[in-house]
Amino acid sequence: MPEPAEEFVFLLARHERMLRAYVHALVPHVQDADDILQEAKVRMWRSFSQFESGTNFSAWARKVAFHQVLSYRKRRKRDRLDFSDEFLNTVASEYDNSAEDLEHRERALHGCIAKLPDDHREVLQLRYQEGFSLEAMADKLQRTVTALYRQLSRVRHVLHECVTRQLSHTEEGAN
Question: How far apart are the first and last CA of the chain?
Answer without folding.
Answer: 35
